[in-house]
Amino acid sequence: MVKVVFRSIPWVIPNYANRCFSKSFTTRKTVETAKQIRSLVDEGKIKEAVEFYESQGKKSDYRTLYESLHKLQSDDSKEVLKQLNNADNTEDSDIFNTNIFFSDSVEQAKEIYDKIEEDKKDPNTYDALIAVYLKCENNEDAYKTLEQAIKSEVKVKQKTIKRIIDAFVEDNDIKEAEKVLRLCASYCIEPGTTIYNVVLGGIIKTGDHESAKRLFELMGPDKNKDTFLIMLKNHLQREDQKSVDALLKEFLTETDVKDPLSSVIETYVEQSKHESVKALLETVEEKYGIKVQEKHKNLVQIQNT
């Protein structure tokens, strides 16, 4: 068993006020430090890894140390992780957020979480706790934790909202994913286009095309290239030419996407709509005012080969 005495982990930070390192040197040094920590842990040199971490005096390397120990899963690494979890670190959010994030169970995560004073619970803390719930396939409590955070006026991160929606969509539980969107809307939180796209793709996967169309329209100007291509792929698969035409008109003439025609061609070919894409190229200039370039023709040929 490795017994490590933590002298400075992780709250005593040296004073670098009189050291004038360039940004590039500092970045390189950080990368090298992280690499050395990982290497020592991988070799089973747990005590040496901790001592090296301490000698650097940078709490930004704490996550590297913790993650490496967690990945190793040896008796010695587990013992050191236990010491880290039991350390009095509630004054440093980065540290206890890391401890929560890599917890192996909801119980362990909540035990760490409950040590934190209420005013110390920042968005990253909620994100870490929710990540553990989802890892343990407890989506319902993840949602309740998100709801608690939002009602407590915590500025929840988009990545946290996306974590939960991704989990619901992966389980084909679109109603719960939509419930997350409604929760955000009721508190004037904008989930972001990426999250809407995840839900849109999930709805299409269930075969509820009318709901997909409604969400597509509701997104308004927030639609991006991926949004259009998700819907285009859906319309092509269903051979809904009327919807294809309406979507192409909006995508090719009303968006600021760079070279949208190339994206359309790639989507057509991906769906094996080779004859349809040839017909499109013959009419695209007349219909949408887009001149077909040699690269567009080549793209069709390359995709066909």
Automatic annotation (TrEMBL):
SUPFAM superfamilies: HCP-like
Pfam families, alphabetized: PPR (PF01535)
Keyword field: Repeat
Protein's name according to its UniProt entry: Pentatricopeptide repeat-containing protein
